[in-house]
Amino acid sequence: MSEEKIYSFPKSMREVTTHYCAGCGHGIVHKLIAQIMDELGIQEKTLVIAPVGCSVLAYNYLKADGLEAAHGRAPAVSTGLKRVHKDKVVICYQGDGDLLAIGTAETVHAANRGEHITVIFINNAIYGMTGGQMAPTTMEGQVTKTTPYGRDPKEVGWPIRACELLNTLEAPYYIERCAVYDVKHINQTKKAIKKAIQNQIDGKGYSFVEILSMCPTNWGVDPTKAAEWVRDVMEPYYPVKCFRDGGEKK
Amino acid sequence: MTKELIFAGFGGQGVILAGKILCIAAMKEDKCVSHIPSYGAEMRGGTANCSVVVADEEIASPVVEHPDICIVLNKPSLDKFEPRMKEGGILIYNTSLIENKPKRTDIKVYGIDCNRIAAENGSERAGNMVALGALVKIVPWLCSVDSFEFALDQAISARNKKFNEVNLKVIKAGYDLPLNAQ
Amino acid sequence: MSEKILMKGNEAIGEAAILAGCRHYFAYPITPQNEIPAYMAKRLPEVGGTFLQAESELAAVSMVMGASAGGARVMTSSSSPGISLKQEGISYMSGAQLPAVIVNMMRGGPGLGNIAGAQGDYFQATRGGGNGDYHVLVIAPGNVQELADYTIKAFDLADKYRIVCMILGDGYLGQMSEPLILPKAVENLPAKDWALTGAKGREPHIIASLRLNPDNYLEKHVYDLYENYKKIEENEVIYDTQNLDDADYMIVAYGTASRICKKAIRMLRAEGIKVGLFRPVTLWPFPKKEIAEAAKKVKKILTVEMSMGQMVQDVQINAGKFCDVDFLGRPGGMLPEVEKIVQRVKSYV
To answer: Which residue stretches of A87-129 are H helix?
Structure first.
């Protein structure tokens, strides 16, 4: 019987143990990005912008030039860097607090300018690094450190849908929402990220991929339950679908 | 020698431009110059002024507190700057828009019908240029009237250069006026 | 030989930045510095550069950070309230040792204040301004020629020391037009082997200000920053003096305030009163030794500022042990009057 190698550790990933908790979605998405960097052969021209939040140390795991932005400013930092290096691939990696609370203006305006960047948005409905506070995407009734009685939309507003919000703008080229709660969705997510990066390489414009993800630690559940919660609670409110492709609204 | 001037009028009367043209003309003749415009929150219709210093030595301060020379094109500007003038100073005021005569007796006062003279010479908007011509006739030390051609060429954007010829004509009309201190 | 041209201070900064090799400029409008973005919007496309009007000061300074990390010479400009917002990015860039030029054409404060020129941001500029232990190299030009010359110098120093360099002017300087001889264009820009250019044939570069582990990682980094600051303090102090050689009294002032003082000094000298000017040009590093030496030779110092008294503290700290330090200032975008300065100095005689 001949042996065939069907899996190897991505070259664009550092062989270190991450600081992410068991069942967290960041590690999955990091690995997908690293695999895509390998497959597209872009490791030497990728510039990763890390946000403030759990993924602030993304540059310790992805083997590419890395820059750390202030909280919420990753799209603006990406804009400055991309405008200098038009031939490089700029990946702007952000969490929900970064992208939709403190950095809403930067998010909307970078998208509205159609910056030639790829934004990867991890939506896990909570602030991870600071210890489980309400995020702009926290679900109605969800208990967090700062919504101990559950999120009450009458007091703090409804969870914001990023893809739908950005889809009102003229400039974006590609907008898709994915999830990483099971293998099927992980594979779909990889396809979406790959497309979003290929768009940038091809000079197509702004690409945005939202990924529904798990935070078992701050949700106070085990990893299996967390994956089920994304499927059963988050996905019905945040539909997994492509909102725009090739500049055309779906 | 150092001369400190104020050009003042309504926004749109071109007082800031007049100050700039004087600066460029004097700079061409190797004088030291400085120009500070007032800049209000309003864009149009308010009062505008600029402080200009012309000197044959390094200019210490570009800020004009007590002007040697004032060119005022409207009534509010006269009211504002007449009291601040240095004793023995020169005040040129626009009789087209200012009915009351200046009050001070310790300064030399020249009333000029700027708007009418400008209109007679082809541009009713060029009252500022009439005053500029008269100014260098009264104070020839500032610069020669001939340097204004160069100054207009430098100061005016390509879009508006077509007005240079008529502006120069109006400046010369101001320069050729019979001028007597009141 | 270059021809003299009459140029507005704000525009002189813009042209000088281009001559310094700056091809990226990001900013948000605010009076009294709006001529800088307008000038850059017009000129940068002509030289193949990028002008971008950002959605906020926070975004503008972050774009500056991104471009700087990419190795570009980059600038932003604003005025006092806008500079407060930029402090976030300034602190981050200082932590990450990213060079940039930031222009602050100061206006009256606090808050929205007014739009007249003022000098109330001295503390903010010279003490870091944002969070943490750091310094910004602060240059305070005194006329339009210096605005141009020191803008170029700011780019050179920013790259040399990997530091944020601030041009600290005020509304009057920005709006003022004076004759200018354009400086020479910088021809060879310094190589930046630390920049983010893609990890081709080398280990990846990481540019970050977060330093969590080990426990003393940040402490060591801040010591390194301060080693760099020490070199700047030793080598890059700039100041100017006038009429100090035989002076009994010394006026200390910078920027527009120093221009008013020059006029007062002329008037006092005409009356036989021996008074001179000490004008710090770098506000950080402050000319500590130089002002102390000058203080030893005079009977009294008068510090004049367009504020309630901020630089006067540095004068007091460094010169106060050698002679009395007096203060005269006006806040709220008002200019100290020449006559008041003259009277104050006369009262010492």
So the answer is: 96-97, 104-113
